[in-house]
Every structure is written in structure tokens, then in C-alpha cells.
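#struct-pred
JK: can someone run the complex with zinc ion? inputs below
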Amino acid sequence: MPDHNLRPSPVVPTVDFDADGVQHGFLRLPYSRDDSAWGSVMIPIAVIRNGEGPTALLTGGNHGDEYEGPIALFDLARTLRPEEVRGRIIIVPAMNYPAFRAGTRTSPIDRGNLNRSFPGRPDGTVTEKIADYFTRNLLPLADIVLDFHSGGRTLDFVPFAAAHILPDKAQEARCFAAVAAFSAPYSMRMLEIDAVGMYDTTAEEMGKVFVTTELGGGGTARAETVRIAKRGVRNVLRHAGILDGVIERSESRWIDMPSDDCFLFAEEEGLIETCKDLGETVRAGEIVARIYPTGRTGSPPVEHRAALDGILAARHFPGLVKAGDCIAVVGTV
Ligand code: ZN
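RT: done, C-alpha cells with the ligand placed:
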């Protein structure tokens, strides 16, 4: 391990992780700045514990413009009673709290993308300090980890829970069992296009059962996707044996992202015409989107075609695209 990892984290929790009952407190991260010389970032955290048992670590707001997770987790933290729990639930509804407050994917303090900042550094930027605290202080407490994502302001997804293809097949099976328990309308076997620095990877390398989601997007949350999030988190807690009761299962379609061929990227800027809606069947060779040059009339659009058969699992959300934007993801059924 590099030397900086020998330093303790500067983050101070105001909760006692070993105390029974419900605690609402903060992860206090010192951040000295112009408007607050000895100030701190105050990241809300709830701990609900009732005796011995497994620990679930539940997070939202890893990206600050994704809302189903924070809504479901602020609600869960407020409503769960300790007598319902066996073991411990740690809830951080807005992990990258500065980004969440700003309504942006990355932190306004250091532009840090938390889900590309793991394992983090105790002596790094604010975002790296958050990552380091999770890596060395919170993840080791957890048996099961659920990290909510949605598409944010620039993507929209069919609602799915997901886990990754892992080298340890027993661990992978435990992750997919938890995905199935979540019971989103879709369940995804995920291939990461950019796995370096992810919370997911850090948790998985520690052997944790890790479940993530993509529940919608566009920088907002819908009634349907919030319902899916609220039901899914309780289902995962029942699956882990932390909450009693029967898992509310509903039909879920399994989809895969087997290769880079699933992703369509813009090579030009322009006005995007989406030719398929989320969840619609797509055949290899079919046009998924057209991108119109906007400088003048009379120019033909660039056509983007699916490379494989499947469904439209994700799409670019705003009406204008830039070169390099992910414009669509086709998941295979
Ligand atoms: Zn995200």
C-alpha cells in the first residue's frame, strides 16, 4: 500500500457504528475555504442497528444529479424502526454531498467524479477523501452493499438493478441473487467500459456482495422509478436477512451488456433524433438515432445503427449531442 494510506482519514463520524437504535448524524469532512476558515462538509448518515447480524451499506448520490437513490434512502432512514432490523443498516443518501447539493454529476469543489476516485486518498481532494473514507472505514463494515445510480442529466435508462461479471464465480452468484431480489423491471449483467476508480470495483475486490442500479435519468426521478427504488432496497434488506418479510418479487427481464458493441457514441455534434424508445426491441443494423448537423439546412443526418439484437437500454437525454457523447446502449435479452 502507498504511504498515504497509513494516515487516518480526516473524516469524523458523529455516529457510533456499534450503538443500537437509530442515529441521524454526519460524516464531517474538514474543508477550509474562503467562506468558512475551519469549516467542514457535513455528509448526512444514518445508522440503524439492532444487535448482532449482517451489515448493509446503502448509498445514493455517488453522482450528484441522480435522484431515485437519495429519495428512497432519505425515506428509509426516516421510517425504519430498529425493532424491524436484525444487524445494522448504514445509510448515506448522498455520498458525494457537494455534488448532490449542486445538482451536478461531479463535485463543484474539485470537479471530482466520486465513482472514478476510488480507492481515494486521505490527503487528496475533498472527493478523494470521501472515497478513502468509504474504502477504509465503511466498506470493511459491510456484508452487502447497494449503490443507487440513475442516468443523471445526460442519460436515461430502462430501470434495472445490476451486478458485474466477476472472476470469483461464487461471489458473482451472490451478487446476482441480490440483483434478483431487488426485482427491478430489468436485471443487468454488466460489463464496465471504464471500471478504474469505481466504488463498485473497490467493493467487489474486497469480496462484498455488491448491487448497483440505473433507474431512470434525465436529472430527475419519476413516480414509477421511485417506487422501484423504495421496494428494491427493502427487498435487498429482506434478502440479506436484515429485514423480515417476504421479498416482493415481480417479473424482471435479464439483459446483458456483453461487449463494447452495445455502446453507440457520437462522432459529431448536432441535433439527435431518437428512433427507438427505451425498452423497444432493436435489431442489428437498425437505425437507433440520427444526428443532424445544425449549421444549415440541406445536410443529411448521420445515422447510428445497432451492432447487435436487443432492446434500447439507455439513451442520451438532452436534445443536442457533442462528439464523444454516449447516444445509446443496446442490451441483449
Ligand atoms: Zn451514476
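RT: quick notes.
DSSP finds six helices and 19 strands in the chain.
Residues 62-63, 66, 149, 152 surround zinc ion (CB under 6 Å).
JK: thanks, will look after standup
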